[in-house]
Every structure is written in C-alpha cells, then in structure tokens.
Design the sequence.
C-alpha cells in the first residue's frame, strides 16, 4: 500500500479513502479472498472472542462461510469442548436445523426459531424430518397447540450429497423456501434456503485437516496458563488466541512462552500444529516482542472497539488504520502476520484494514447484532429487535471472569472496568443474519480489490493507494436517504 500524500498524524478508517488504479481484473468473482495470516481461511474475517458474540452458532456459521469465530476466555473449558464438538459435527454446507418434537408447543417452537437465520423449525421423529413450522403458520393459532398440529408436511427433501446449484434449482422449481437435507437412511442432516445454496457456490468453508469446520479458542494470561492452553488444544481448538488488553507486557511474554511449549508438545503427540495469535498491541515494538516470544499472528487494536472505554479512561490506544499499517509492516519483516481487531462498522473498514496489510479482520459488536450471536433476541418499545452486547473488560464481564475469586479480589478487579456493560445492537432488518453481513462485507472487499487491480489480498495490500480525507470528504461518501 502507498499513500497519495504522507500523513503527519495517525489515522482511523474514517480518515482514509482509496483511489482506483488501472485494473485487468475483469470480475469481482475472480478475486481470491483467502486470508494471508498463515491460516489461509477462505474468508479473512474472524468473529471476536466476546461473550456476547461468539458461541457455537456463530462459530459454525462463520466457518461454513470461510471465516472463523473465537470462543472467549470466560467460557468454562468443558462448555467450550462440547461446543467445538458440535461445530465439528455440523455439516460444512447445510445449516444445522432448529428441531422440535411433534409435541413441542407452538410457543416454545416460536421461541427457538430466531436462533437461526433460516426462520423455520423442523419437526422430527427421532432424527427423521416430519414437517416444518414457520412463524407465518402460527398466525392466530393458540400458543399451546403442538408442533404436529401446525406443521406443514410439504417438505422438499434433498440428498445431503447434492451440489448446491442443484439444491438451488430444486428450491426454485418447487417454489419452496427451505430444502431439508437427509442422508441415505432419510435422517436429517441440515437445511438450506435458496440464498444459502447460492452462498455455498461462492464461499468455501474453513475446514480442518479432517474436513470439519474450524474454530478458535481464547485463553487469558492469568492463572494456570499451561493447563488452560492444553485444555483448549484437547478441546480441538484450531487456533489459540492469547488474550489480554495490554499485550505488550511481561506477563504476556511469559504466557506466550508457555503456550508455545505446550503447543509444540501437543503437535509432537498428535501431529496437529496449531497457530498462536497474541495481543493486543499497536506498535511495531509490540509486534516484534510478541513474535520473538512465540506468536504466529499478532492481534492489533487498543481502544477502537465499540464496547471500549479504554481511550476515554486512560488516553491510551492508537487510531486503528495507522496501528494496523505499522504493525502489519513489522510482522511482515518477521515473516508473520496480524489481525486487525476492532473498530469495524462498515464494509469499507474491512477493505482498508486489508489494504493496510492485515491478514484477517476481527469483528465484535457488529456481529453481536445478528441471529447467530449468543444473546437472546429482545424487542424495544418500537418493536425493533436487538441483542445486548457488552465489553470483555466491562464490570459485567469482570464479575463473570472473577467468579471463583474472593469477594475482596473481585471488588478490587471491578475498579478497573474498561468497557460498556450493556448496549443494544439492533438487527439490521435488511441483514439480520451474520451471513447477510458477510455477503455485504465480502462483496465490498471483492470490489475494492478490483478497483485496485488485485486478484488476491496480498496483491491488494501491495497495490492499494490510500489518501487522507477531511470529515466532509467522509460525509460526501455517505448515501442520502432523502432530499436535502
Ligand atoms: N483491545 C482492547 O482495546 C481491549 C480489549 N480488552 C479485552 O477485555 C478482556 C479482558 O482483558 P484484561 O483486562 O487484559 O484482563 P485479563 O483478565 O486478561 O488480565 C490482564 C492481566 O494483565 C494485567 N494488566 C497490567 N496492566 C494492565 C492493563 N493496563 N489493562 C489490563 N490488564 C493489565 C492485569 O493485572 P491487574 O488487574 O492487577 O492490573 C492482569 O493480570 C480481553 O478479552 C481483552 O481482549 C480489554 C480492554 C482493551
Ligand atoms: N477496551 C475494551 N475493548 C474491548 C472490550 N471488549 C472487547 N474489546 C475489544 O474490542 C474488539 C472488538 O471490537 P468491535 O468494534 O468489533 O466491537 C474485541 O476483539 C476486543 O479487542 C472492552 O470491554 N473494553
């Protein structure tokens, strides 16, 4: 990447823009979005290790569309183990269905449907699909009715080995919303909408060596790091994230040394080599020290996050575009990569982070406002739907993380709150599922690459030409919804 004119101060994503270059990339579909961070995930996006964001449904969906999700450090290890096992059992193309027994009440069925974006529950007899219940069928029906009394039995079943294009065509021909995939015994494997089938022709899933969906686990730097790292690896984490707010500290350096030792020991025993991500830092010096201590990927970003109060409280942090640019260059010198973590609110921010050299981009709060995030769906007074989000250094998260400590230690830890405990992340009515956001982001990034004449992300980081803009320059680029 090069600047049109060199900046004299540090920059956020909103401070910069890209100019087009002469391009011989004739289609956006010719752009390869494989991450350049050493993980080579087909989509360079990671759902943040935040309790309000990444659980099993987020992990499964992100990996199915080529990205990753990281289970947060606050989730008990046995729960992480069970969740990863479920992710690994889920189908790489078909979405896991919301299933109910024939006798489940309509009220309960309706409460389960929003757990997934496809908007329907499959009624099963054991694992055999019998019918479908959608919210539309529930109109005017008593909430104590049973699923079997409400369901439609007009099912479009497809073989689980069918290719996505033929599933798309079958759905169009049958004018159906949902295809139910079954195995050779007629047992339920998963479901897909026409859009889901279409997506499966555009995205490739992020798979481990055994062809199962990948997921990552975050580990804090306090306590028994050795056991925590080993537990994460035994739980089949495909990536390990050593996680703390201030990654440029001695405790992180020694935790990384332990993590590397345990990781290498595990690799010798199992043949499975897992990359270590560590952060967060915002300077080249921070990157150099974490790489020397054993990080394969360095996580970059202090204070850009939407749930973050660090900058207001401490004055510490750095505008994210400049942090990413400097840290990516430093990591490249050591043959390593970075993740740009936090501050992403528009597809353009992802494109700019990748232009600045990020290997992948981590997103938290934006993804909290989707069906797949961990929280429950809520309605505000105007009937808009949202989910609650909170920062990992908020009083709420600290209370949870320190639950096994003495009341005195907990009270002391609570003094150092650096995040918001409750915020509303509204679901975008146009893009309520995380896959909708992925479509929006990846189509934007593909387009950015063709404007730069880049066929892949490493060419993009080489070729992008970035300028600095005023507040009114940024404002000019925003669409206007009504006349002025
Ligand atoms: N990217 C960002 O800007 C930020 C991210 N976070 C996220 O919040 C979560 C909690 O992280 P964290 O607060 O580090 O908690 P952790 O529980 O991971 O512990 C951090 C350790 O580092 C020590 N420490 C020393 N200086 C600092 C400092 N300035 N800030 C924080 N810890 C420090 C703490 O000691 P002691 O408590 O005794 O000081 C503690 O032992 C993580 O998921 C992290 O990623 C939090 C803040 C900023
Ligand atoms: N200073 C704080 N930073 C936090 C907290 N919780 C999470 N984070 C960081 O934000 C990113 C995600 O950023 P977003 O803009 O996409 O929401 C996350 O990965 C952490 O690094 C917090 O409580 N305080």
Sequence:
């Amino acid at each position: 990447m090069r600047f049109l004119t060199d900046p004299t101060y540090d920059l956020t994503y909103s401070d910069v823009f890209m100019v087009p270059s002469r391009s011989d990339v004739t289609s956006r579909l010719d752009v390869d979005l494989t991450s350049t961070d050493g993980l080579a995930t087909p989509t360079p996006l990671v759902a943040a290790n935040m309790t309000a964001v990444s659980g099993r449904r987020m992990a499964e969906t992100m990996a199915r569309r080529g990205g990753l999700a990281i289970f947060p450090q606050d989730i008990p290890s046995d729960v992480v183990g069970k969740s990863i096992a479920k992710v690994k059992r889920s189908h790489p193309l078909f979405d896991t269905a919301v299933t109910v027994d024939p006798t489940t009440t309509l009220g309960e069925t309706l409460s389960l449907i929003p757990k997934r974006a496809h908007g329907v529950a499959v009624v099963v007899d054991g694992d055999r699909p019998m019918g479908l219940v959608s919210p539309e069928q529930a109109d005017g029906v008593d909430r104590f009715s049973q699923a079997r009394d409400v369901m439609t039995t007009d099912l479009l079943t497809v073989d689980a080995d069918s290719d996505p294009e033929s599933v798309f065509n079958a759905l169009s021909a049958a004018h159906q919303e949902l295809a139910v995939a079954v195995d050779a015994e007629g047992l339920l494997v998963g479901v897909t909408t026409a859009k889901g089938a279409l997506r499966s022709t555009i995205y490739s899933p992020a798979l481990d060596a055994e062809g199962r969906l990948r997921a990552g686990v975050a580990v804090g730097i306090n306590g028994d790091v050795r056991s925590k790292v080993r537990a994460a690896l035994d739980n089949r984490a495909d990536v390990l994230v050593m996680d703390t707010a201030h990654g440029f500290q001695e405790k992180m350096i020694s935790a990384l040394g332990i993590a590397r030792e345990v990781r290498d020991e595990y690799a010798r025993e199992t043949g499975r080599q897992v990359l270590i991500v560590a952060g967060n830092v915002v300077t080249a010096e921070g990157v150099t020290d974490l790489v020397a201590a054993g990080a394969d990927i360095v996580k970059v970003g202090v204070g850009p996050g939407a749930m973050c109060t660090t900058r207001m409280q401490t004055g510490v942090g750095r505008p994210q575009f400049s942090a990413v640019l400097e840290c990516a260059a430093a990591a490249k010198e050591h043959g390593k990569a970075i993740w740009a973590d936090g501050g992403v609110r528009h597809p353009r921010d992802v494109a700019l982070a990748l232009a600045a050299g990020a290997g992948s981009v981590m997103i938290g709060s934006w993804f909290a406002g989707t069906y797949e995030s961990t929280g429950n769906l809520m309605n505000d007074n105007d009937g808009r739907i949202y989910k609650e989000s909170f920062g990992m250094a908020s009083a709420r998260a600290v209370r949870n993380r320190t639950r096994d400590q003495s009341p005195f230690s907990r009270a002391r830890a609570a003094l150092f709150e650096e995040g918001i405990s409750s915020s509303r992340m509204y679901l975008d009515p146009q893009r309520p599922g995380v896959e909708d956001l992925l479509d929006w982001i990846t189509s934007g990034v593909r387009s950015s690459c063709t404007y730069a004449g880049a066929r892949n992300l490493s060419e993009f980081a080489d070729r992008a030409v970035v300028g600095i803009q005023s507040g009114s320059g940024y404002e000019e680029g925003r669409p206007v919804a009504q006349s002025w």
User: Anything to note?
Assistant: The longest helix spans residues 250-270. DSSP finds 18 helices and 20 strands in the chain. The chain has two domains: 2-88+206-476, 98-202.
